[in-house]
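re: that chain from earlier
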Amino acid sequence: MKKIYISFFVLSALCMPGCSNEFLDVDQTKNVPGEPNQVNSDDGATTMVDAIYNTFLAWDMSSFAWNAVTSIISDDADKGSDPGDTGVDKAVIDALEYNASTPSFQSIWDYNYAGINRANQALDMLPKLDQVTPALKTRLEGEAKFLRAFMYFTLVKGYGGVPIVDHISPVPISQADKEMQLTRRSVADVYAFIEKDLNDAIEALPLKSAYSGSDVARVSKGSAYALLAKVSLYQKKWQSVVDNCNKVTGYSLVSDYSLQFKKEGEFGSESIFEINGIGSPTAPGFGIGNYTASQAPRGAGGWGWGFNTPTQGLADAYEAGDVRKNATIIFRGTTLYDGRVVASTVSNPMYNYKAYSSAFYNLEFTDTNLRYLRYAEVLLMKAEALNELGQTNDAIPLLNEVRLRANLGSTPAVSQTDVRTAIWKERRVELAFEHDRWFDIVRTGQAPAAMAADGKTFIVGKHELWPIPTSFIREAGGLSQQNPGGY
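^ sequence. v structure.
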């Protein structure tokens, strides 16, 4: 998709009376105009939807805060950096000592709703455009609904029930719309909304094979089926997982696991949904702000901030000969694939290789992509669902397909219980640092034991959900309540 440096638009519909727009003050996204004649063309309509994608390039959406609440919080990663550098709140998140005022949780809440608001604006505007090619308009509506569903999936996984804001609100805001924006809905309601958006997207989107050129970065029918399968996985709707995984067609595992995390491996046969970074020395909107630099080796001989470092537990989870270990972890004192040397004097023994960029390794706006859905995960989701349905013999070959690509032999697991454990472990090593581990250990009930093994205390009844930001609870004025756990 195109990336154009245009100043950020004001999200008045998102902002409640008395709240500030300051948290939305970023420069890397496109304007969504207020009049149809400003976008009443194929290019104009496409640019409007590109603004939704570009939300994911924001520092507060996909970088420091996102790494904190999905990786550093888990048993896969430590805060890293130097002991005296807390990273604002990364030390308390690492220790599971955060609260409702911890800034990273505010950032993820605010920016997902900012993206949802962009999707709502696009979905409001598109039907009014009479100079846009009808097929393109339909596709763009499908993209907007997929992206809105994806952001709501992030919110419901992290916070539980959240407000469902499904349309833009005029200013001054009505009481009904204010209540819509400030009232948490049930988890079931949010999942139903996500499923409706994804089913609409499936009807509107083309297959991946229909895209060419820069459009390969856009979501497709396969993206929507894969996300719907994952949404079903989190609800333990096992047959729905299988049915939707079966509809993710035209994809295959790449032979070289490491290639898909390099520039030349972007949007390959395994890619189902990834956020596109182009990279730029200076221009916002061309890459995820400091995603690479914040996770790069720190200290003498390093070039980055050194946060979000792999734990020894993650390193030990890889079996001997697993090619994914050296494709996921940068080890101190080694040479990277492009010849860059990681000095033996850097601060931390390990760093996240999947965040590395050869061309923009120490620059703010990286060309590193975020891989959110890959075909390997589709295989593992289907294997997990089949195993839970008692079809263990059908699940094992899918698990083995992922293992064989990693240069491992077939799993020795045979029983349903052992295969379940094997699939969970395979998800850990296959998807490490792809922002799934925390959600995985929570949804499967592994969190107390996994965090104890990492020297942390997971409090059952509290840590399953992130705290709702204090600012929202105050603004809600009794319409919404905090998550349990004494935040």
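DSSP finds 18 helices and six strands in the chain.
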